Amino acid sequence: MSTSPAPKTPRSLQARLLWAVLGLVLVAWASAAALAWHEAQDEVGDLLDAHLAQTAALLRLQPLDELDEDKLNEAPELDKHQPRVVFQLWHEGQLLARSANAPQQPLTERRKRGFADSQVENKAWRVFVTQGREKDVLILVGERQSVRDEIVLASLTSMLKPMAWALPLLALGIWWAVRGSVRPLRQLGRTVAARQPQALEPLPTAGVPPEVLPLVAALNGLFERTAQLLAAEQQFTADAAHELRTPIAGIRMQAQVAQGATQNAERAQALAATVQGCDRATRLVEQLLQLARLDAEAAGPGHAQTDLAEVARAVAADLRSIAAARGQGVELDIPGPVPMPLAEPLARVLLRNLLDNALRYSPDGARVRMQLTPATPGHAATLCVEDSGPGMADAEIARLGERFFRVLGTGQSGSGLGWSIVQRIARLHGLPVRIDRSPTLGGLRVRIGG
Fold first, then answer.
1. How is domain 297-449 classified at the architecture level of CATH?
2. What pLDDT is attached to residue 78?
3. The CATH number of 213-294 is which of 1.10.287, 3.40.720, 1.10.1740, 2.40.30?
4. Predicted TM-score (pTM) above 0.90
5. What distance in Å separates the CA atoms of residue 342 and residue 348, rounded to the nearest whole number?
6. 326 strand-pairing partners
7. CA gap 265, 278 in Å, rounded
8. What is the 3-state secondary structure (H, E, C) of 159-182?
9. Confidence at 371, pLDDT banded by 50, 70, 90
10. Fold of 13-170
11. What is the mean pLDDT of residues 352-371?
12. Is 140 strand, coil or helix?
């Protein structure tokens, strides 16, 4: 059985930064060396060309009849490399004289005054050509190109040797600087690693470099959101346990009544109450699960567009039978498609909770109207649900959305979670929620969006 290769361990930020800087330094150093070589070739070439011309000028000043063989075999010494300079004296194609290290063949075929590059005896030469005092005498002064390259290399070596010795010191300095630069990150890592799991207080920002400050701020934001989530979870768990205790106790009591009942009517009534208690507990659990899923959302579910008109018609059709049993009317004011940035399942949950609350807390025979307004330039789409019920006081409206908060005296069972679900969905999608009294029906009016 083949096994997949283990993933490569990524290099540390310090190592990547160090190698990147050292690589740039080496590239810059090599580029500078190449440029220095090119410049040295030009400078040394010009200098040695001047030496060749100067040697030729000294030879030209000497009359031929005053030169003996020993003097002809020695070129004037201009520097330590000058003994490698050679010369030839030609007259009508005949070699009159040459230095001891000069070849027998002409150094170049050039006959006019000036410089020439040539190949003699498989060696590259740089040659200066000039006329002697006698017009029919040709003076050739040359130097092998390899000698020039040695001079350039020696000059470049003397210049680059200190730079080469400085490279290790530069690398050490870069390592020290990079290590010091990433020290705040290591310190931050040690600080976070040393924290206890339950420690959610923000990290200190005093003395933090500006480059690390966004990371610290992000971590502090994460700690704050985690603390809020844990607090909400603890509160939710406590409230849910308290709220579930009531229907469960009611179911148990009705079951005990049914067990001890001696008459069928009494037993049937107790069992019916038991079923109602189960329905209430089921609805409470469903709302708790919906709220828990919404609380688990780290961000809005995206930019999904849902046609609220279709969802509103479907939700109204589901609840019309419940409304008809109490003589309530459900009116829809939907001019056409109304897209809104809501995922379809969440849009259904939102509309159902709004319409169910309006029907549940309105008296028999009340009117409930759901109105959808499409988006216009400068205004987003709006959902409005209003009823002809008794409405709510301002203090009660201010508390809507608190988990398990219910208005007393309505005569309706419920957990108070519906409003929490509505406001949580709206908040996840950035939709404003406004609650006030309906100017037309007199009851409560809820507007979302716009």
1. 2-Layer Sandwich (3.30)
2. 42
3. 1.10.287
4. no
5. 9
6. none
7. 20
8. HHHHHHHHHHHHHHHHHHHHHHHC
9. very high
10. Beta-Lactamase (3.30.450)
11. 88
12. strand
